[in-house]
Amino acid sequence: MSGMPALPGSARSRGAFRFAGSHAATSSPAPTPNSILTLLLGAAAVGLSPAVLADDAAVESLLKKSNCLKCHAVDKKKEGPSFRDTAAKYRGKADAEAKLVAFLTTNPKVKIDGRDESHDSLKTRNDADVRDVVRWILSR
Ligand code: HEC
């Protein structure tokens, strides 16, 4: 009959947390896959080789040739750690590159499946190629 009881005054909203409505909306369009493809095809057509992409392909083919991908993947653990985990492990360490260059050229002993085995080296004699692979791994 008498409707809702009145709320005590203390329950009034005080509006303590108000945000200034100055959110800058940035909407610059990201490059679409198509525009990247066009760029690549264009570059290929005029005989340019975009260095970064060429390196990626060379690195991946050396990894394949060296059987690395049997035990490693970029983002999931197989027999060995993912390249992303290795990148995270070495992030910010000044000697990361030197350590991994040594690791991938000197067949260090590691535990593989509980057994001591020597870790494979990259199948190349070219230091620059080894460094490219190491940098690629560290930038995953
Ligand atoms: C038979 C499996 C196997 C193959 C083939 C293999 N790895 Fe590994 N790799 C491992 C294992 C297991 C570890 C972990 C060793 C450890 O932590 O002691 C490892 C560790 C690593 C690490 C991390 C080293 C560190 O200091 O954290 C890198 C980088 C790596 N491998 C790269 C490669 C590359 C590049 C190749 C190809 C030349 C390769 N692996 C071939 C099993 C393999």
What's the SSE blueprint?
Layout: H1 33-45, H2 51-65, H3 83-90, H4 96-103, E1 109-112, E2 115-118, H5 127-138
Antiparallel strand pairs: 1-2
The structure holds heme C.
Tally of DSSP β-strands: 2
* End-to-end distance: 70 Å
Annotated CATH homologous superfamily: Cytochrome c-like domain
Spatial sequence of strands, sheet with the most strands: 1-2
Please provide a written account of the structure.
- The chain has 140 residues and is mainly α.
- Helices cover 40% and strands 6% of the residues.
- It has a single domain (11-138), classed as Cytochrome Bc1 Complex, Chain D, domain 2.
- The chain has a two-stranded antiparallel ribbon.
- The longest helix is centred in the middle third of the chain and has 15 residues, at 51-65.
- Heme C is lined by residues 63, 66-68, 70-72, 79-81, 86, 89, 100, 103-104, 110-112, 119-122, 133, 137.
Brief write-up:
This protein has about 140 residues and is mainly alpha-helical.
Any key phrases for this structure?
140 residues; mainly alpha; Cytochrome Bc1 Complex, Chain D, domain 2; two-stranded antiparallel ribbon; elongated; binds heme C
